[in-house]
Specification:
Layout lengths: L2 H12 L4 H16 L3 H31 L1 H16 L2 H12 L3 H25 L3 H9 L4 H12 L1 H17 L1 H4 L7 H11 L2 H25 L12 H20 L10 H18 L1 H26 L2 H16 L1 H16 L3 H30 L2 H16 L2 H12 L3 H25 L3 H9 L4 H12 L1 H17 L1 H6 L4 H11 L3 H29 L6
Helix pairs in contact: 1-2, 2-3, 2-12, 3-4, 3-6, 3-9, 3-11, 3-12, 4-6, 4-27, 5-6, 5-26, 5-27, 6-9, 7-8, 9-12, 11-12, 12-14, 12-19, 12-20, 14-20, 15-18, 16-17, 17-27, 18-21, 18-24, 18-26, 19-21, 20-21, 21-24, 22-23, 24-27, 26-27
């Protein structure tokens, strides 16, 4: 029966004494039914819950090993980059050949795409545990296992919780792509709204995806032991009685046919939204059209002309390798040269230039928006708690849905894909930057204040430099997510590698898919390594 999941979610979250959150999560459970997509939401929840559980069970141990073993980190890091940046359509091709059409390939693709943040953030949490806490435990005779279980893991809980949140968000972020292999659920409904260009209906169904994300996120957070959270203790007999009551309600609901949701108001919400977007397009065309033309003509077309006609890819290999050698040494130079050479020899250079130009625009816009907001929120926990649901919504609404209104506003082309990628990449950038600012050691802040530093000096001299690992990771995640969204640009007329990946899946052409996937991984790896090497060179010493 439709009311049983809402009761269970409310009970699980209410144990943490967060009654408002529990009530809101219970409403989120029934929201898909209110808008007429109850059956589809159950399919999506089942698929995502299994995928996220696998990610947590695999990601936390791998994150711990990565944090404690530098060699393992060096091996896993490029693998994680590849898992996160290869478009889902690329590894869907071999998965479909092995497992066929249905939920199984969709779940495997979801795990591959959503696992990296869980590993990265678990490792980050372990690495940022204060050395003094570890040394204190060792002085009292604690073994390595005891230090890990009693000190490092408990102190890394905030970062691990953020990892679970990011895993849930990313798993639901490819819910639309999963429908290409027969996953069904809410993604199928969203695909239909895209074909019909119905932004209102797309937004209503996307909010159902947000509701699913909210439920999975809040339930997972309530099951994790968080310091300072008092839980309601339930006696064993009371638990048994509650389970029996739920079973009786389920049987009664089954007998009386209370399986489907009793009513639906979806259409009445969608029509005004469609009308509003049409009005916006007509009214603000004098602004949106020049912006679209500027991005296409002055940035994208100029970049294509420069690197396809004026400068050959062989010359780019030499220049890029020299820059990489100056920034990060000969290993990075060799990686850059070999990667660009592979792209050029396989004939993917024009598509790569197109995608790279769009990626640079999207990443720059994302950094300019996400990093300042993350720094601001890191010092204001109350504001962060208010904005957190907004970030969840931004990240869980499938980017293809963002593309619908932006296609109506900017017309078909690369700009809708760029804007959708920016919206999708901002939330992890804000979260990770805020996490780094928030986890700066109190002793360092106290020392700076004692020596008379102002609030601005503390921020730029202590907080930001000490939070640099998290900020670098934030930029890394934004680069990865923008590149992963290259497929969306291809679906809305942006061209580039995203269009080629769609072409590879629809033919199907596994060879083309592999070439495109490797090209995207090469771009992501080079950008990531050069970015981190540059950040290390420019990182200022901590001023106290």
């Amino acid at each position: 029966p439709w009311f049983i999941p809402a009761i269970i979610v409310f009970a699980v979250i209410a144990r943490t004494r967060k009654w408002g959150v529990a009530a809101f999560a219970a409403f989120a459970v029934v929201y898909p039914g209110i808008v007429g997509v109850w059956s589809e939401s159950i399919v999506t929840i089942s698929l995502m819950a299994v995928s996220v559980l696998i990610c947590v069970l695999v990601g936390i141990p791998l994150g711990v090993v990565t944090a404690l073993n530098k060699r393992t980190e060096s091996i896993l890091r490029p693998i994680l980059d590849g898992m996160q940046t290869v478009p889902a359509t690329v590894y869907l091709i071999p998965i479909v050949l092995v497992f066929g059409i249905g939920p199984a390939p969709a779940a495997i693709a979801t795990v591959i795409y959503a696992l990296p943040p869980m590993i990265r953030l678990t490792a980050l949490g372990i690495q940022q545990v204060p050395r003094s806490a570890v040394e204190a435990a060792q002085m009292f005779g604690a073994t390595k296992r005891q230090v890990l279980a009693k000190v490092q893991l408990p102190l890394a809980v905030p970062s691990i919780i953020t990892g679970i949140n990011q895993t849930v968000m990313m798993a639901l972020g490819i819910v639309v792509i999963a429908t290409l292999v027969g996953a069904g659920g809410l993604g199928q409904e969203i695909n239909q709204t895209v074909r019909r260009l119905q932004p209102g209906r797309g937004l209503i169904v996307s909010l159902a995806v947000v509701a699913v994300a909210l439920v999975l996120d809040r339930v997972s957070m309530s099951l994790v032991s968080t310091p300072g959270v008092q839980r309601i203790r339930i006696k064993r007999n009371t638990l048994y009685i509650a389970i029996i009551c739920l079973a009786l309600m389920a049987v009664i609901g089954r007998v009386f046919g209370w399986i489907e949701f009793p009513f639906s108001w979806g259409t009445s919400f969608a029509d005004p939204i469609d009308t509003g977007f049409k009005w916006f397009r007509t009214t603000f065309d004098v602004v949106t059209r020049p912006f679209n033309d500027f991005v296409v003509r002055e940035i994208l077309v100029r970049a294509q002309t420069l690197f396809n006609e004026t400068i050959t890819w062989q010359a780019v290999v030499v220049v890029a390798a020299a820059f990489a050698f100056y920034i990060a040494g000969w290993k990075m130079s060799l990686l850059t040269a070999s990667g660009i050479t592979f792209i050029g020899l396989t004939g993917r250079w024009p598509d790569s230039v197109d995608t790279l130009a769009q990626t640079v625009v999207a990443v720059v816009l994302s950094i300019l928006i996400a990093i300042p907001i993350g720094i601001w929120l890191g010092r204001r926990p109350r504001a962060e708690s208010i904005i957190a649901p907004v970030l969840d919504a931004m990240q869980t609404i499938p980017c293809l849905v963002y593309a619908i209104p932006f296609v109506m506003i900017f017309s078909v082309g690369p700009v809708p894909g760029i804007v959708a990628a920016v919206v999708y990449a901002i939330p992890p950038g804000i979260r990770l930057t805020s996490l780094g600012i928030r986890q700066v050691n109190y002793e360092s802040l106290e020392a700076a204040t004692t020596f008379g530093a102002s609030q601005r000096q503390v921020l730029w001299g202590v907080r930001v430099p000490l939070a640099m690992p998290s900020i670098i990771l934030a930029i890394n995640q934004m680069v990865m997510m923008v590149l992963a969204m290259a497929i969306i640009a291809g679906m809305v007329g942006g061209g580039g590698l995203g269009y080629r990946s769609i072409e590879a899946l629809t033919k199907p052409d596994s060879g083309l898919g592999v070439e495109v996937g490797i090209a995207i991984v090469i771009m992501a790896t080079i950008l990531d390594r050069l970015l981190q090497a540059t950040a290390r060179r420019l990182q200022a010493p901590v001023a106290v």
